[in-house]
Design goal:
Length: 140
């Protein structure tokens, strides 16, 4: 596999508007992922802070928002120290279905990591699973 891509689909019992807040609002992001230094907005950079007590001001992830179409699509670059600053891309889509939202994440760009691409993708795959467990709990 030369270009590992993570594709995750989550079925949430929440409106697209509510899901959007959990993807872009600093306070809502902190409930399931990491607190952001500001609202994720198109064309803006962002930093995500540590959840470790006593280290809440420590930057752990960062990137820039490439596209933000409220309630439909969010795309941003994503990196952290373990990636040595190499940028990957997270593409989120939100689709209304019944009384909820189907949230899909495509996280790619791991081929830029080189010979550790598969390992990096596998680690992120596990991490997203852990975060989505939290998202399901807090969003409903």
């Amino acid at each position: 596999m030369t270009n590992p891509v993570i594709i995750k689909t989550v079925f949430l019992k929440a409106t697209r508007e509510r899901v959007w807040k959990f993807l872009t609002d600093p306070g809502k992001l902190s409930e399931w992922f990491h607190r952001s230094d500001g609202t994720l907005q198109e064309g803006k950079g962002f930093e995500l802070m540590s959840n470790t007590p006593g280290k809440e001001t420590e930057k752990v992830c960062w990137g820039r928002v490439l596209e933000a179409k409220p309630y439909e699509r969010l795309v941003y670059t994503f990196t952290h120290e373990e990636l040595n600053g190499i940028e990957t891309t997270c593409k989120w889509t939100l689709e209304s279905v019944g009384d909820g939202t189907v949230l899909t994440l495509i996280h790619d760009g791991f081929e830029n990591v080189g010979d550790k691409a598969f390992s990096a993708a596998a680690d992120h795959d596990v991490g997203w699973d852990e975060h989505f467990v939290l998202l399901r709990k807090v969003i409903q």
